[in-house]
From TrEMBL:
It comes from Paenibacillus xanthanilyticus. Keywords: Membrane, Transmembrane, Transmembrane helix. This is EAL domain-containing protein. Residues 330-380 form the PAC domain. The keyword Transmembrane helix applies. Residues 259-297, 381-438 form the PAS domain. Signal peptide: none annotated. Residues 678-932 form the EAL domain. CDD domains: EAL, GGDEF, PAS.
Length: 940
């Protein structure tokens, strides 16, 4: 092999390998550079753009130069025009700049990628053409077909490279880099091959041949070696920097991605044109758009309404132009739009990333729907509180260190001011009674914890007019215009206290005669008997009953009977000694305790009473003569217990009646104390239970607000074949004494519940069935279980049953009564107090026990509205019941005047002969569902 052959083999093989390396490096840079430029910011982005474009352009130029150097033919060596050669370098660099500049965009269509590829291909072809023109000492001829093939291949390779570069913009990963390296190797090999196809298309005819013997490598050979070395060095450095940048970008992308994805607020990154570059998971959840759908979309158009889209688009453009002008401010509340078109309140903050070029904006958004709801609820609560305070019927006074800052209208009215302004600036203590100021001072200076734990206090206060009123006050600490002040809520309890005083009077004293009633009498008797026991003296207890009083009462009327009782009570009082205790316990029955006396002295007092009572009584012009029957029991001979003494005196009184009345008898345990009538009735009760001689009648109760039937009261009737119709007033006490009231009461309860169930099943409107419960029944241990069993067996809901208890029940063990009533209430059963005002003296049970209805005794209704005493009492009872949140039912309504009076004064329900007398069940069915108006019309 000669020297020329060696050189021809040496040059192509070595330089072709170098061309291949340069081609692969340049391909890798062309594929990776657009992604690096998009990821970089500020100066780094400019450095990458200029450095990468220069390296790529130099690589393209070096590829052509070295390829030309490797081409030797016909024993000729290629020489160059240096100026033309450098011009081709400029063309290559210019093409690289143009191609990279067009490729660095967030979004590229296929047409744009093809356009950029064609531009790069034309630039490469132009570089080759400029390099060929730079050849010296040769004529250049072309093979048209090979030139076209080379050009087409170059264009296809460049277009493919643009498409691949766009596809490799995805986040950096090991697999991504491996695929990119493989594509770079493939593309570089193809580019090197295309280079040599282009060189083969050239036909060079040397102008001056050089013999092979004289051939020596010239300066262009070493130029090729130098260009190759620099090209590899530059491209290698760029690739190393690119790999280093990949790691930094991967770290930054991972960090930013984790922060953005983990954020609970929406984070939307947008470019200078308002297009979405990043859309975090919180934004996906809130707006309902997937990230793939959102990226690239115009943010104002996607996330806001049409009205806001234009203004926000202009605001973004203004912010991009002038970073100092942020039209969004620090925080903007606006309206967002979800994917389904629904609107929601949104808090928007837009900030610009510093040193980002081109500008990048980040929108932080938060769904403030819940906050708006909370704020609206707070505003609503404040408005509700303001209205509650302003329009509260209870006085509200706000004061600081005793000085009044605010009062509502009710407080101004209560204190006698025409306008709340009259009280502003005055001291609350000025209105308080001097004796109660110490209590008020505690409220002014007590710590908040003790104040909240303390209950309401009662204060006597003066109105501006000087009138003294009673207030129930409760103070709490509140915030008022940013200051801690005291808010006092008051209630005018003047009428309540007066009513309580009236009720107390009613509870302790007989309203007709003014004498102590049974309750006060028992309290006084216990004390006096204890004194007698300590002093070793005796005492007499007298039971006095007027003979023929019922006949007078029924014949001449109740008003005559009342006047007769008043006159007789005066006669009794005049017959008593100082220290004796006189009491009217019911109807025409009186009790007298004569402490410190013997039987003989007691007999003298009894004779005095009989003598004084024998004189005629003048009542409304009528001369009436009544005689008393007196029974006497002695302490401690007969008993040391007050109740037993009363019982024995009662028995002695019946003994007097049996002996002809108008006299007195002492109790004797050896004689019969029960009348034959009572014994016969008691025996008849046993038989009545066995033969079911008890019937129920029902009396409707009407609701005065709606006018409709609110319920019915079950009233027992005894139809005895032997005794005829026996009054409940006669056989019920016997049943209680004998214990038969328990089975009789259970029978009444069962029959009443069964009847109500039948009415419901027949389609009649449901009404409450009221059943009386005696003291003896209430003492039964299994009372609640029995009631529950009856309800279960009859199928009647507990809500349609009402149990009426007397005030005597309330006088029992308070804890036991409360527990039993709570158990009854737990079944949904209504509890009412029957015949209120005639029994138990203490009213504490009204607030201690779970009561629903207070029934006013018919004795208070009888003389309405003509009796001022009865009027005051009924008004007091109604006012007190309302203050305790109890419903009020009036019994014994017999006239329209009584009905109108009760309706006018706020009574809840009424029953009486004026509306309907007690009727059998079949007659009640005809009036179920009727109103008061229809009953009055029928009555008239």
């Amino acid at each position: 092999m000669n020297q020329s052959q060696t050189l021809m083999q040496y040059y192509p093989i070595g330089l072709i390998v170098i061309c291949l390396i340069i081609s692969v490096f340049a391909s890798y840079i062309a594929l990776d550079l657009p992604r690096l430029l998009l990821a970089a910011r500020g100066k780094a982005r400019r450095y990458w753009f200029f450095g990468g474009s220069l390296a790529l352009g130099f690589g393209l130029w070096a590829l052509h130069v070295i390829g030309t150097m490797a081409y030797r033919r016909e024993g000729g060596a290629a020489d160059y025009y240096l100026t033309a050669l450098l011009s081709s370098l400029f063309v290559a660099i210019l093409v690289a700049f143009a191609c990279i500049g067009l490729s660095v965009r967030r979004e590229l269509s296929v047409a744009q990628m093809v356009r950029n590829g064609l531009l790069l291909g034309l630039g490469v072809c132009g570089t080759h053409a400029a390099g060929a023109l730079a050849l010296d000492q040769a004529r250049i001829a072309y093979s048209p077909m090979l030139v076209c093939v080379a050009a087409v291949l170059t264009l296809l390779v460049c277009v493919s490279m643009q498409i691949l570069a766009y596809r490799f913009r995805s986040p950096v990963s090991p697999l991504n880099r491996l695929v990119k390296a493989a594509c770079s190797l493939a593309m570089g090999t193809i580019i090197a091959a295309v280079q040599y196809v282009g060189m083969i298309a050239l036909r060079l005819s040397p102008l001056a041949s050089v013999s092979m013997e004289e051939f020596k490598p010239n300066v262009y050979f070493w130029l090729a070696i130098g260009v190759a070395g620099w090209s590899i060095l530059v491209l290698g450095i760029v690739m190393l920097c690119a790999n280093f940048a990949d790691r930094r970008i991967a770290q930054q992308v991972a960090l930013n991605g984790s922060l953005i994805e983990a954020a609970s607020d929406c984070i939307v990154v947008i470019d200078a044109y308002g297009r979405i570059m990043e859309f975090n998971p919180a934004a996906e959840r809130i707006f309902g758009h997937r990230r793939e759908e959102a990226v690239g979309r115009f943010m104002p158009e996607l996330l806001f309404t049409t009205l806001l889209s234009d203004s926000y688009g202009e605001a973004i453009a203004r912010y991009v132009r002038d970073p100092a002008d942020n039209p969004f401010g620090e925080r903007t509340e606006t309206t967002g739009m979800r994917a389904d078109g629904t609107m929601f309140p949104l808090e928007l903050t837009v900030t610009r990333i510093r040193k980002a070029d081109p500008p990048i904006l980040v929108a932080f958004m938060r769904d403030i729907t819940e906050r708006r709801r909370a704020e609206a609820a707070l505003r609503e609560s404040e408005e509700r509180y303001r209205k509650l305070v302003h329009y509260s019927p209870d006085p509200v006074i706000v004061h600081l260190n005793g000085m009044i800052l605010f009062v509502n209208s009710a407080a101004a009215e209560t204190l006698g001011a025409k306008d709340p302004e009259e009280l502003m600036g005055r001291f609350f203590s000025d209105f308080i009674h001097p004796d109660d100021r110490e209590i008020a001072e505690f409220g002014l200076h007590a710590p908040p914890s003790r104040l909240s734990e303390s209950g309401p206090a009662e204060l006597r206060c003066y109105k501006l007019s000087g009138e003294l009123i009673d207030l129930e006050v409760k103070s709490i600490f509140v915030k008022w215009n940013g200051r801690g002040v005291m808010q006092t809520i008051a209630r005018d309890v003047t009428a309540k206290k007066q009513a309580a005083q009236t009720i107390r009077q009613m509870a302790y004293y007989d309203r007709l005669t003014g004498l102590p009633n049974r309750n006060l009498f028992l309290e006084l008797v216990h004390g006096h008997l204890k004194m007698c026991e300590e002093g070793g003296s005796e005492a007499a207890l007298m039971f006095i009953d007027l003979d023929r009083f019922k006949t007078i009462n029924d014949t001449l009327g109740h008003h005559v009977g009342d006047e007769l009782l008043k006159a007789f009570s005066c006669v009794l009082a005049s017959s008593m000694r100082k220290g004796d205790i006189l009491s009217r316990i019911a109807g025409d029955e009186f009790l007298v305790l004569v402490p410190g006396t013997t039987e003989a002295e007691a007999a003298d007092i009894a004779r005095t009473i009989l003598s004084n009572a024998n004189m005629p009584f003048k009542v409304e012009g009528i001369s009436l003569i009544v005689t008393p029957s007196i029974g006497i029991s002695m302490f401690p001979k007969d008993s040391e217990d007050a109740e037993e003494l009363i019982k024995y005196a009662d028995a002695a009184m019946y003994r007097t009646k049996e002996l002809g009345k108008n006299g007195y008898s002492f109790y004797d345990s050896n004689v019969r104390t029960i009348s034959s009538r009572e014994m016969q009735l008691e025996q008849g009760l046993h038989k009545a239970l066995e033969q079911d001689e008890f019937l129920l009648h029902y009396q409707p109760r009407y609701d005065l607000h709606s006018g409709r039937i609110a319920g019915v009261e079950a009233l027992v009737r005894w139809h005895s074949p032997e005794y005829g119709v026996v009054s409940p007033a006669e056989f019920i006490p016997l049943a209680e004494e004998s214990g038969l009231i328990v089975p009789i009461g259970e029978l009444i309860l069962r029959k009443a519940c069964e009847q109500n169930r039948r009415w419901i099943d027949a389609g009649y409107p449901p009404v409450r069935m009221a059943v009386n419960l005696s003291l003896v029944q209430f003492r039964q241990t299994h009372l609640v279980d029995r009631i529950e069993q009856v309800l279960r067996e009859t199928g009647l809901p507990g809500e349609l049953l009402e149990l009426e208890i007397t005030e005597s029940v309330a006088s029992q063990n308070e804890r036991a009564v409360a527990e039993r009533l709570q158990a009854v209430k737990a079944r949904g059963i209504t509890v009412s107090i029957d015949d209120f005002g005639t029994g138990y003296s203490s009213l504490s049970y009204l607030r201690q026990y779970p009561l629903d209805v207070l029934k006013i005794d018919r004795s208070f209704i009888r003389n309405l509205p003509h009796s001022s005493d009865d009027t005051a009492i009924v008004q007091a009872i109604i006012a007190m019941a309302h203050s305790l949140h109890l419903s009020v039912c009036a019994e014994g309504v017999e006239t329209k005047e009584q009905l109108d009076f009760l309706r006018e004064h706020g009574c809840s329900e009424v029953q009486g002969y004026y509306l309907s007398k007690p009727r059998p069940a079949e007659e009640i069915e005809t009036i179920l569902g009727t109103t008061i108006a229809s009953r009055i019309e029928n009555a008239s």
